[in-house]
Amino acid sequence: MKQSMVKRVGSALLALCLCVSLAACGGSGTSSASSESSQSQSQSSSSESQPSSSESQASSESSDASAEETGTELSGKVTVYMPSPAGLADKIAAAFTEKTGVEVEQFQGTTGEILARLETEAANPVADVVILASWSDGLSMKEDGQIVSYTPENADKINEGWVDEDSMLFGYSASAVGVIYNTTVYPELSADWAGLADSQYADDIAIPDPEKSGACKDFLAGLVTGLDDGEAIMESWANNGLTVPGANAAALEAVTTGEKGILIAGVDYNAYSSIADGEPINIYYPESGTVVNPRPAMIMKTAPNMENAEAFIDFLFSDEAQQLVADAYLLPGRSDVECSNRTNLDEIPQIDTNWDEMMQVADDTAAKLNELCQ
Q1: Is 323:90 a contact under the CB 8 Å cutoff?
Q2: What is the pTM of this model?
Q3: What are 339-354's pLDDT values in tens digits?
Q4: Is the peptide bond preceding residue 294 cis, with omega within 30 degrees of 0?
Q5: Are the C-beta atoms of 331 and 292 separated by less than 8 Å?
Q6: Do the beta carbons of residue 201 and residue 294 sit within 8 Å?
Q7: Residues 6+ apart with CB under 8 A from 128
Q8: Most exposed residue of 2, 194, 274, 313, measured as fewest CB within 10 angstroms of its CB?
Q9: What single DSSP character describes residue 128?
């Protein structure tokens, strides 16, 4: 009987242990599944909260496209040396600043004054962009290694021949020289260059100082290299009483006041502007041709603000700047911009010019003219 009781108690204890063991196994399996589920959810949540590599790349490309569309933000200043007309220089500077936020510091003067200033500052360069009224002087700066190459915006629209082969000189505008005459003295005038040595014009002809006026210097260089009798024509003017009142403005004033009746190699934009102001003058281009002188804009190799200099060159060929050029009676640098207030480029008879040859003789020819007129 005791043995039977012991067996029953043992069986009960065995069954109890078996239940506890099974419960423990079941609890352990549930905990593991819960952990795996939690880990899976955590990974899923983490994956969703961070963009995939493809999404990151797409976002980066979008930002780059946006930056490219808006362009690089400019700041600071750009220093520009420019010839007359002063009103045009001021308008271009103001428009560039309004568009970019870059301040423009200017020095305005004749080509001779600008070149003299550059020489003075050679040890401590200041200028970023230099614009001259003489293509040959620009070529000389290139030959001296003072400027750098660049491809401006709208380069494909620039007049043929107004960018040099190394893309260092950019003719953003141009002037031509002609014969300007006082209409109260000569109601009509159409004499060719050689004809101005006629005795009827004796002591009544003037010319801008070619050592101060880049446009006049280049014209004389074109005259003596482009016409067979060019040098003889120049000498005949001197023999007919040719005078040199000064640079372009002073020479024009001599004619507008009637001190002289005729100005040889007068800069055309000055004439058109004066005519619009009611001055008693007129201008024509002699039939044997004249020199159209692109005004080279150049980036200095020593430019302290290179990025702003490039932006300024770009702006010079913008629609806005080119219209300002046309409004100032200059010839625009772009072939798709025409003038309504003056003779256009394709209407001006031109001497066949070789700028390399002209550059070689320009300074000597200018000096010779002044010697002849002393």
Answers
A1: no
A2: 0.78
A3: 999 999 999 999 999 9
A4: no
A5: yes
A6: no
A7: 78, 79, 80, 299, 300, 303, 304, 305, 306, 308, 309, 312
A8: 2
A9: S
What is the separation, in whole angstroms, between the first and last Cα of the chain?
158
CA atoms within 13 A on the CB side of 71: 9
Predicted pLDDT at 34? 37
- At 201 the pLDDT is 98
What pLDDT is attached to residue 86?
79
In sequence order, the β-bridge partners of residue 181 are: 262, 282
User: Quick one: three-class SS letters along 96-114?
Assistant: HHHHHCCEEEEEECCHHHH
CA angle 60, 65, 69 (to 5 degrees): 150
B/e letters for 333-361, b = 16+ CB within 10 Å, e = fewer, are bbeebebeebbebeebebbebebeebbbb
pLDDT means per 10 residues, the chain with 374 residues, are: 40 38 39 38 39 39 36 88 91 97 96 94 97 94 97 97 97 98 98 98 97 94 97 98 96 97 97 97 98 97 98 98 97 97 97 94 97 95
**How many CB atoms are located within 10 Å of the residue 250 CB?**
15
Indicate the DSSP class of residue 158. B
| 135 φ, ψ (degrees, to nearest 5) | -65, -35
> CA angle at residue 14 from 10 to 17, to 5 degrees?
140
**How many residues make up the chain in this entry?**
374
| Amino acid at the residue 97 | T
Q: Are strands 103-108 and 77-82 parallel, antiparallel or unpaired?
A: parallel
Look up tokens 């999404």; give the residue.
Answer: 55
Contacts of 97 (CB under 8 A, 6+ apart): 103, 104
CB 329 within 8 A of CB 342: yes
* DSSP character string of 286-340: -TT-B-EEEEEEEEBTT-TTHHHHHHHHHHHTSHHHHHHHHHTTPEESBTT---S
Is the separation of the CB atoms in 251 and 266 below 8 Å?
A: yes
Amino acid at 222: G
